[in-house]
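Hello Y.,

Per our agreement to keep a running log of every chain we model this quarter, I'm adding this entry. I've kept the format consistent with earlier entries: sequence first, then predicted structure.
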Amino acid sequence: MMTMQRKVIANTCVWLLACSFIWVPSASAGACEPVCRAVSESGYFIVEVRPEAEMIALNQYHSWIVRITDSNGMPLSDVYLLVGGGMLGHGHGLPTQPRISGRLGEGLYRISGVLFNMHGNWMLRIGVRDGDIQDEARINLALDF
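Predicted structure for the entry above:
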């Protein structure tokens, strides 16, 4: 027969376990405050990204705004972009295939379909092609949920 104290402890453990399955962890947009910025590998482009929403939710789709400029800081509004990435430390890519869902002008683009399925260090790879010039920028994100 359980004592009252053991019943309280057992009920608390069950409650905490149940809550762990419904809790949706999130990180603030502080992963890129105010923006994550990288120069492409060969120096042709400057790539800036920021989450569109205030919160980056784990296991939920979200969008990011990307700004592409040339090496002199001039916005590029008619480039081809390819988005990839993953967790290098874990050896896997993104669990989704993000895509460009909007050209917003002034070198701004919207990436939709980004999803992070766990906390940790992630990398977004943004491939940029402007005519015959092609380069890639890598953005590192530390998402501690």
